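Below sits the subject:
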Amino acid sequence: MNLKVALVGNPNVGKTSLFNQLTGLNQKVGNYPGITVDQKIGKWKDNETSVQLIDLPGTYSLFPSSKDEELVFNVLTDKNSQYHPDKVVVVADASSLKRSLLLFQQVRDLGLPTLLVLNMIDESEKKGQTINTEILAKSLGISTVIVTNARTQRGIAELKKTITTDFNSTPDFVIPFQYRNAVEEVQQTFHLQNPYIAWHYLTQKEIHYLHKEDIVKIEDIYKKYQIIPKRLQVKETIDRYAAIDTIVNQSVEIQDNTKPSLTDRLDAILVHKVWGVLIFLGILFVVFQALFTWSSVPMDWIDEIFGNLSGWVSQQLPAGPLNSLVADGIIPGIGGVLIFVPQIVILFLFLSLMEESGYMSRAVFLMDRIMRPFGLSGKSVVPLISGVACAIPAVMAARNIENNRERLLTVLVTPFMTCSARLPVYAFVISIIVPNGYWGIFNIQALALMCMYALGVIAALLGAFILKHCIKSDYKSFLILEMPNYKIPMWKNVLHSVRENVQSFILGAGKIIVAVTILLWFLGTHGSHEDFGQVAEIVDRDIELNGFSPVNQQIIQDEYQFQLEELQKNHAVSQTTKDSLLYEVRNTTKEQIIQSEKLQKSYLGAVGRFIEPVVKPLGYDWKMGVGLVASIAAREVFVGTLASIYSLGDVDDSAQSRVKIKHRLEHEINPNTGKPIINKASGASLLVFYAFAMQCISTLAAVRRETKSWKWPMFQLLFMSGLAYISAFLVYQFMS
């Protein structure tokens, strides 16, 4: 037997933890067809019963005030939905039972077999509460109430067993007398057996699964009986809470405990209007330090593995296009994806820990009064912070903001936040133009990285402040938030979150990065120029006749001196070794010259030459212009593109690699300026450009899905790109 079960509950009741305990790793994440709300489905099998568990978004009631809550209502009331459940499990916070019972009663009255689960029972017991589940079940008209603690797996086995057996729930919603005729007419018109579903037809302004002609019929009933939907919602809520108060008083016994809880003592500091903000900023600073320093070792390790693999494959395969494709295209492309994984893991690890511990809600509360002047709310903090990881899920996270204007503003400015895709660009440029030293106990490069993150935050807030005067709203919104108790994070949930997001990055951005890397390999190794196939012979002949140019001679000397000093650190170096080293450096330089000449005559060179007039005022040459164009698909591609174009080899953060890159680029002269291609002026210009530019097609697609229009993503693209170009131009002109 196949059983479809919906998991429903308020936010912060431990629903995700319960879902993970029930399904383990047998789950998948996606989107519901036609909309962008997250879909999370898990499975397990009990004897001959196969259970499909659908984790619906958190909601406080069946009166939707956001897209997430709208989805819950549609799934539970539309019998034609492919996700319409056979049974429903409503998860309640045992320590705050009253606020969960409103949702439970509404779901139960839809006529679906409904089970109540009291989760986080340990928190309830710590508060001195004793819940009589027998009285509670009888008062609610259900056969049983399950008590669980997802953190310790208490009650999980009983819950699984109960889900696969029959359980009863008796609807008892009484239609108010003055609305009975209207409800009966709705039932007759739409052939509805359940009066409570008919009641919802009258209380909801929009029910998206109904046809236009059905909506017209409902509007006629509104007029006939002078129905105002909002009044019906208020009437139901007041009546239900009056009954819920009685139920809670009968079934919950509370011991008098005046001693402040640990949560109360922590909140006295962590939500303080001064100390709380400073602590929050301190936590963010720790995250930035970790991103820049902790990730360096695993990134070096990954880079070395793929570098060695590329060299090994190049030696094993016969010379030719296939060898070049695999060794220089596919393997570096895959390595270019995986090298970012350590940074993404660290970032999502911190975000998940803040969410699991209950601290993220405090961050929302703290930032609400800061966000209000900019046209945002405290709920905008979650998407904005998520934007530090990736703008795509961050844009989607804005859907739980009830106010349409605040949601739209958040969607439009979130891409200003420094996402993980910008990190490789920042790390690469900062390692060249910022000295790797310490200011007191702080790493200077890490401070520079934090400044780039701060610049993104400032841009997002200023952008929202400007746009709030252009986008109007009919009503004000208020932050309604219940603080969960602090708790030790469940590592299982944290690791689930990290795994899902890393998997999303690898399968999402990873495909783009690999594809662009292979495309760049093709464009850089093929060309229509008549001399393209004879570049090596031409360079050999020119060097034999005229020798190396003065610039290349200086490059050879610097590289030779650097490698010689490295050898002399360990032992004395003979003249034969010196001659051999010089010969090797000269050959390497000649190969770099050949690669540079090939690029100029390749298809990639043709693209770069075409866009050079546009990027020239920013201090870039055509080669950097190619990197900018390639990174429109994914910002991460920029570093790999420069490494290919300038023949930089390994682009990691080791001291030797930094010196090698710096030496190479110091002598790579921009023909337009006569200065090194990445100097302080052009480097700062490049950092500012990437801080503001909308260079992510996937983000534009996400904005299109959320706003249901191309108007806003096109506005976003033009606004951010224009701001990036003008800012980079001003920075370069000022610093040069």
About this structure: Confidence is low (pLDDT under 50) at residues 31-36, 648-655. The longest strand covers residues 38-46. The two ends are 73 Å apart (CA to CA). The first helix runs from residue 15 to 23.
